[in-house]
Amino acid sequence: ASYQLAQRLAAPNVIVALLREVATTLDELLERRLDAAAVWRELLDHDPLHAEAFKNAHRLFVAESDHVALHELLGHVIAHADPDDELAVSTLLERGQLRARLGWLTGAAEDVLQILAAQPRHADALSALADIRLQQGDPHAAADLLRQHLSVLTTPDAARSAEKRLAVVLADSIGDLAGARRALEDVLEDVPDDLIARERLATVLLAQKEFAAAVGELEQVARLREDRVERALTEKKIASLCVSRLNDPERARAALERARVADPLNQEVVGELLRLVPQAQKPSVLDRALADVRHAIADNPADASIHARLVVTAALAQLPALESVALGALVVLD
Fold first, then answer.
1. What's the predicted TM-score (pTM) here?
2. Residue 206 and residue 200: Cα distance in Å, rounded?
3. What would the pLDDT profile of 31-58 be if each residue is shown by its tens digit?
4. C-alpha to C-alpha distance for 289 and 45, rounded to whole angstroms
5. Which of 66, 206, 230, 328 is the most buried (most CB within 10 A)?
6. Measuring CA to CA, which residue among 217, 154, 147 is closest to residue 183?
7. 237: Cβ–Cβ under 8 A, 6 or more apart, which residues?
């Protein structure tokens, strides 16, 4: 009733204050989020750039994934804000990114290009337009924009991130493996322990058939991995490349030994190690494998997966009695 009276009296300040009170009550006390969002949005019709109303309507539309209402809200602010104001620029950028996510790529590009027309070195706009061009199927334009983006960045972390993005586009979308390699090597020159960059560089080197260099990178990747299972898998890949591409069984054995230390219960590693070691060393490999599985069973006697590994290890060691016992335990546990 108070709101209707204020409308009849045409008191804008009173209307805004009442709408604010209603929206706050709906949002904070009654937790009627959608109704609150609608009232905050209505408030903006009376005070187009009311900061609190925009902030809260934006928050609620995002939380509810109401893309249509969010798009309309952003358009409202763009229409009323000073084009040169930071609010207009940031809102244009957000609307462009929203349009890109919704697949409206032409409209997305128009928003971002409007920013770049006034600020050609706007880093976030260059980055967003690169993503849009990539979605539009123009990786060369995307790569050019990423290079421009890289040229305007001022912090090392941001530059490294941009280099990695550029490398992905060059390698995966353009096939410029040499360019991708240079970009990743630039990153690693600054941060040698960047795991993602080293993984990407190993992939690029493999695609270039630079197998020795790829193995060297994978050895660094394995060193950097914190997860022991993943480290063992990387070492296993190194061993495979050493055998198939480098004809270096000694280096392969060393990789498999590291893999066994990282993941003692990995039976595939044990099997591959048995194929590479001399006959005289095979009993030692099997003894260690059996000891590792037995220790694991002592620590977790009810874990069926460990008993299953004992079955495999006993078979590798050609110990049928032990294999039979392990199978019996596995049947009981299952």
1. 0.79
2. 10
3. 898 999 999 999 999 999 999 999 999 9
4. 74
5. 206
6. 147
7. 218
Any idea what DSSP says for residue 85? Answer: S
Quote the pLDDT of residue 186: 93
Contact by Cβ (8 Å): 219, 211? no
Helices (H), 191-319: 195-207, 211-224, 228-244, 249-262, 267-276, 282-299, 304-316
Q: Which of 229, 190, 223, 187 is nearest to 204 (CA)?
A: 187
Q: Any idea which residue has 């660094």 for tokens? A: 220
Per-residue buried b or exposed e for 252-288, using 16+ beta carbons within 10 Å of the residue's own CB? bbbbbbbbbebbbbbbebbebbbebbeeeeeeebbee
Contact (CB, 8 A) for 189 and 201: no
Can you tell me the distance from the alpha carbon of 333 to that of 305, in angstroms, rounded to the nearest whole number? 10
For residue 105 the two structure tokens come to 């790529």
Dihedral of the CA atoms 107, 112, 118, 119 (nearest 10)? -170
In whole angstroms, give the CA distance from residue 50 to residue 40: 9
157-191: b or e for each residue (b if 16 or more CB lie within 10 Å)?
eebbbbbbbbbebbbeeeebbebbbebbebbbeee
Query: Which pair of structure tokens corresponds to residue 319?
Result: 């110990």
pLDDT at 304: 78
